[in-house]
Amino acid sequence: MKYPNGKKSDVQCKPVRNTTHHDTSRRGMTLESEINKSNDYYLAYKIANIHKKPTPITIVNVSYPSRNKAKITEAYFKIPSTTDYNGIYKGRYIDFEAKECKSRTAFPFSSIHAHQINHLADVLSHGAIAFIIVRMAYYNTDYLIKAEDFLLYYNDTDRRSIPYNWIKDKGHVIANTYLIPVDYIKTIDDVYFKEELDD
Amino acid sequence: MKYPNGKKSDVQCKPVRNTTHHDTSRRGMTLESEINKSNDYYLAYKIANIHKKPTPITIVNVSYPSRNKAKITEAYFKIPSTTDYNGIYKGRYIDFEAKECKSRTAFPFSSIHAHQINHLADVLSHGAIAFIIVRMAYYNTDYLIKAEDFLLYYNDTDRRSIPYNWIKDKGHVIANTYLIPVDYIKTIDDVYFKEELDD
Question: What is the pLDDT along chain A (199 residues), one digit of tens a residue?
């Protein structure tokens, strides 16, 4: 297994939480906040129960200025050992990572921690529906990339990124509506459950 | 739906992370650290992929004393909207909360946030294997209580706690070995997968 974060990247791709999406049609929301809004909709309408995991941190110091509210005064971000999102849909375990990509030409592997790639492979082996959501910001398009396809490419290439042409070819475009800004459940229905019907 | 945290509790039951287990046979490990150790074993041996979620916090201030390491200087704990643990086993979505109970006589509902009880009910409706692990510290015994059983009792009682006798009767004792201190996967096999075989 390669360790993508050890490589220098030739294209820029930042983690979701540090990135603001500037397209006006998306009202300045980040990919993370749009997925959270979609998850809130799925939860409220009993469609699925999928949550973003809290950001993992190491807490060093906590003070107690009042009885009710502990205040964390020193803590550090940890490298996540899993993906950011998981939950359940139609009885299936769902697991994915989401990344926004500013490059027009490629999605760099360095955007995803090696731990997260290993995690996707592992949950797949247990029968998960696992994927990556990539927002190609320049094209204002979100793609669902099946972890199976991603891992095949990743394990078989010497490149440090996935070309945009591959993403267009293998990825599945995710619909964007006002109520469900990143409607990846609809894409799951098309990609995973239609396949099962076709069997 | 009742809101258990609004009620005053007649018995003491603290959240896992604040409690140290004092029985020497358990080497002073908390329930949380023992479940994490069990999850590490399940992960390493490709038995299951189940993780504790990070503690949810609200970050208010971050400083950058050096280039590499952002330091969180002000943050607060949030009330969790989901349970602490989830993942996948044998293709099934697994979801549970774990609590240590010091009382000899009952497990108080106030130990579990209302949000978490609603969450258990919701993931059940999507087809999850959902439960609560309760450590009855006085008896040095861990029980797996199916969310179905817990919710039936919870929604049908005026009590503020579950009597120990009910837990002994409806709960399923979890084995404790050196390598797997809280072997709840074995209990899942007995409770959920044998039931499926019996159908």
Answer: 344 444 444 455 544 443 444 444 455 579 999 999 999 999 999 999 999 999 999 999 999 887 668 999 999 999 899 999 999 999 999 999 999 999 999 999 999 999 999 999 999 999 999 999 999 999 999 999 999 999 999 999 999 999 999 999 999 999 999 999 999 999 999 999 986 666 5
Q: B119–A73: do the CB atoms touch at under 8 Å?
A: no
What is the Cα–Cα distance from B65 to B70, expressed in whole angstroms? 7
Q: Which of A46, A66, A72, A129 best probes binding to B when mutated, by most B CB atoms within 10 angstroms?
A: A72
SS3 state at A118:
helix
Residues 6+ apart with CB under 8 A from B137: B19, B21, B22, B23, B100, B101, B102
Q: Between chains, do A75 and B72 touch, taking CB under 8 Å as contact?
A: yes
**Residues B163, B185: Cα–Cα separation, whole Å:** 25
Taken in order A185, A189, A191, A196, is the CA torsion positive or negative?
Answer: positive
Q: What is the pLDDT of residues B127-144, one digit of tens each?
A: 999 999 999 999 999 999
Which chain A positions have a beta carbon within 8 Å of B74's beta carbon?
Answer: 71-73
Whole-number Å distance between alpha carbons of A179 and B62: 32
Q: A101 CA to chain B: closest CA distance, Å?
A: 22
Residue A36: CB atoms within 10 A of its CB come to 18
Nearest CA in chain A to B49: A123
For residue A189, which of A139, A132, A129 has the smallest C-alpha distance?
Answer: A129
